[in-house]
Amino acid sequence: MKRNHIQYVFLLFNVYIGIVFYFFVRFYQNSGTTIFLRRPPSVEAYLPIAALMSLKYWVISGIFDPIHPAALAILLAAIISAVVLRRGFCSYICPVGTVSEIAHKLGNKILVNIKLPRFLDIPLRALKYLVLGFFAFAVIGMSSQTLFAFSNSPFNKLADVKLLMFFTNPSVVTITVLVSLFLLSLTIKNFWCRYLCPYGAVLGLLSKIGVVKVVRDTEKCIDCHKCEESCPSYIKITKKEKVTSAECTMCSECINACQETKALRFRTNVTKTLINPRTYGLLLVGGFLAVILIAQLTGHWQTNISPAEYQQRIPEAASPIYSHPQ
């Protein structure tokens, strides 16, 4: 299966869980008079900050978050994939990355695509690490009591519902930001992923120790620079024997562009085993789903919030008691 096929499958799945979750929330908002669909735990993938807090609480207390366990399971799956297979999550699984790529292709057809100069690109790339640092610093400073209190707060219990309302009842600011990000993605390749995504930042840092890397055979390379022209991250591949950049998403575009001489390959660090892009994609998706399956089999997937509690809380989600705790 090609990379774009995997991307579209995950994108369609995300659209599906969004629709299902919408009807789940609507059922409780309308006192049970509309169609009921079971809450999809996968919607918690969109709660990365809650997952980060849950990760720390799990490490210091041994307790796996019962409120949003799927959020933590998905974060762990992404982290493990980054340590083993580098940042492939971004280019194969993440729906935001897929939408960003689609926007870029659309932008190529209707607009002039812009590559920012190096003096702008480098400081802008640092933004995602600053965002990550802000959240990491805040979470690291929290005590176990604070984390427990937040986990059980009204806001956290309805964090996924509040996020849905953020998109179904958007403010002028929300619409402006979303439209701006889309327009920027049309003209600047992978704008969100390259400059602002904290999730990508943490996976990029972890990928530095990844087991699999893109390697260049200097004897076969003819310095045609096709790899660099195709690289969405603008990495100077022909100057390296191994691509270790945190910006590399293992998308295999460089390898596909190098079919003439086959100078570029995925290779493991220890065994020096060569892996073709399709095998890499299967390993990435298989490993990611395996972690999710383990979470399900061990009872760390479904929330412990009962239907009765949802019935009580969802109709009052707009109440001030569900605002973010100070």
Can you tag this structure with a few keywords?
326 residues; mainly alpha; Alpha-Beta Plaits; four-stranded antiparallel beta sheet; 4 strands
Oligomer: single chain
Number of strands: 4
Q: Which runs of at least 5 residues are low in confidence (pLDDT < 50)? A: none
Supply the helix-strand structural class. mainly alpha
Question: What is the overall pLDDT average?
Answer: 93
Radius of gyration: 21 Å
**Which descriptor suits the 3D outline?**
globular
Please give a structural write-up:
This protein is mainly alpha-helical. It folds into two domains: 46-206 and 280-298, no CATH class; 211-279, Alpha-Beta Plaits (2-Layer Sandwich), CATH 3.30.70. The chain is built from 16 helices and four strands. Strands 2-1-3-4 form a four-stranded antiparallel β-sheet. A hairpin with a 5-residue loop joins strand 3 (264-268) and strand 4. It starts with a helix and ends in a 13-residue tail after the last helix. The model has no long low-confidence stretch (mean pLDDT 93).
